[in-house]
User: Fold this.
Amino acid sequence: MAAISTTAERTTAAAPPRGRRDANTKKLARIGWGFSAPALLVIAAVTIFPIVYSVIMSVSNVQLSGNGFALNGITGGNYSVLVHAAVWRYAVIFTIVYTLITVIVELVIGTCIALVLERLTAGRGWLMALLLIPWSMITVINAELYGYIYNGTYGVYQYLTGLVGLGHPVILGTPTGAIAGMMVADIWKTTPFVAIIVLAGLVMLPGDVYEAAEMDGASGWTTFWRITLPLLRPTIALAVMFRVLQAFGLFDLPYVLTGGGPGYSTNSLAILGYFAMFKNLDFGPGAAVATSTAALVLLGCLASLRVFRVQVGKENA
Amino acid sequence: MATVSLEQVNKVYPNGFHAVHDLSLDIADGEFMVLVGPSGCGKTTALRMVAGLEDISSGTLKIGTRTVNDVTPKDRDIAMVFQNYALYPHMTVAENIGFALKLRKMPKTDIEARVKETAEILGLTEWLNRKPGQLSGGQRQRVAMGRAIVREPSVFLMDEPLSNLDAKLRVQMRAEVSRIQRRINVSTIYVTHDQIEAMTMGDRVAVMRAGLLQQCDNPQVLYDHPDNLFVAAFIGSPAMNLYEASVTEGAAAVRVGSQQIDLPASVTTAHSGLAAFAGKRIVLGLRPEHLPASGDARPGPTLTGDVDLVEALGSELMVHFTIDAKRVQAEGAHDPDAEDVAAAGEGVARVDPRAPVKAGERFTFAIDADGMQFFDPETGLAIW
Ligand SMILES: Nc1ncnc2c1ncn2[C@@H]1O[C@H](COP(=O)(O)OP(=O)(O)OP(=O)(O)O)[C@@H](O)[C@H]1O
Ligand SMILES: [Mg+2]
Assistant:
């Protein structure tokens, strides 16, 4: 036994000398920077500049003039407008709740679909292709499609509720109906995406671990909760991250389907920012909406990483 | 603890491949049974059928007195150590070992005590809070063992548990696994393709080839009395020298190439079946240690060959030589992992270190006649 312990220690002890390698790495890094610089400059011009500019705009007095606008000094006014506006407070809560509900529902349904697909031996390819149709559809078209389904005079939904004797409710006419309808449209479109990501994670899981669990006496249910889910954690975290990022930027679906209404009941942060900037030409508050949304997304992602306890490069720790 | 018995067990995979043919084996209570054979011969398939991870196509599998063909793995009271360990990557060593107990709803304090005890047997105490990803191969292997023994199952199954370890650690763990098995005294089926592992660890060894059981006996019997050419060639390192030969009329001698080896009376009586081969072809088998010295130093039969290479090992000389007879290869018996000792010549002898043997010269070896083996070239069966 003593002999075995020493072998184990030996494997952890030695670390390679690093000096020379570092010198080489630095040189390589310099060359690398040189080659990437042109591309980085272009990226900076088209993305970083607008981001930085809108952050600056959000803390500036923006004055409209005949041929554009001018920034006139620093102010916290734009943010104080937001904080005191009921529309903004509503949009924040709406976006967060909307994100939470859709992501959770998509995750549950998507995981179920993935589990079923993984069991299938025949026809998996076809089913996956079918499943991806909603996801491959452009959001605007998806929104138009649901606009048709929910239409108050000739909509499919109307027809169906009429058939089962529930009358003819106008789905998009009430805030609750509009929000629920929008969520359904969103879940229909993005669940396949979650399902595919989870499926990819599932097929990567080691088969012999499942056999070991079977020998250890784990039932199917226990195996799912104790083995599958924990092992899928990094995969699920990835899916959640993608979805949270997307859901926070919710724009095209309400823009086409509800126009933010009825009232401002489906005003997401992105819709609000857009209306403020480009309809009302409130550039300062609009930029503040954009900036605060970005900050919220960042927080949301950090929070979801926290929940799934995933750190880059530490999945196995 | 329990006996395991396989009666005429067959496995036909869904694609029609017949991987195990009519396998019958009885593993006694507490016995260490090794299944050995070349890659693809159906060892893993046989083991997985015992585990319940693979359906049995036909035949009967009994654990104790119970027929378990249709019993699920978890109700067979069997623990298995997988080749790649199959540890739960998200659990600590302690959780890995305790998982089965937790599933049985054992009280937490009892689990802790059992895990601690198991970890002590295996020398894993310091690593109980690590995850498998932070352990060395040998440590993971021991965690896999721990997960099996903590359950106190009635049967242990191990599928090449040492094959992922480096050579030195493998030798250590070989002894370790034997020690643990003897200590807990649980019937064990151990799969390996390494005949040295099989010989050193098994109470009995079952040699398989292409889905068929060749011979099952204790290691010494396999070595001294192989039932057929395949077992003769597979067991032993360096491998047995096998030559095409023929029996003279009257069956008093065999001809190997241009040489005639007279058979002492002890050999012809022990192998009385040779009489039926008078004037016919046979295969002659000679283990390296049955060519132990210079023929000038001893009376009796001899074999003369051209010495190609002499390896001095201190205690003996490993002499590679060539004779003018054709060497016989038993298909699949050659272990691809082992050093190809026969490559330097057509035969190997383990000679007394004082013998005057030199590379490049002719040398006459004394034959230890009682070690001679004879096989029917048509059927491959040993001639007795
Ligand atoms: N699922 C399967 N379907 C069809 N044939 C299979 C399947 N699994 C294994 N086989 C075949 O059955 C034979 C025996 O396989 P098995 O895994 O039992 O070999 P083995 O003796 O364990 O070999 P190794 O030493 O390489 O592990 C092989 O020829 C293999 O190709
Ligand atoms: Mg195998």
Summary: Residues B 13, 15, 17, 19, 37, 39-45, 193 surround adenosine-5'-triphosphate (ligand 1) (CB under 6 Å). The interface with chain A takes residues 51, 53, 72-74, 78-80, 82-84, 86-90, 99-100, 103-104, 123, 131, 133-134, 136, 138-139, 147, 151, 168-169, 172-173, 176 of chain B (CB under 8 Å). The first strand of chain B starts at residue 4 and ends at 12.
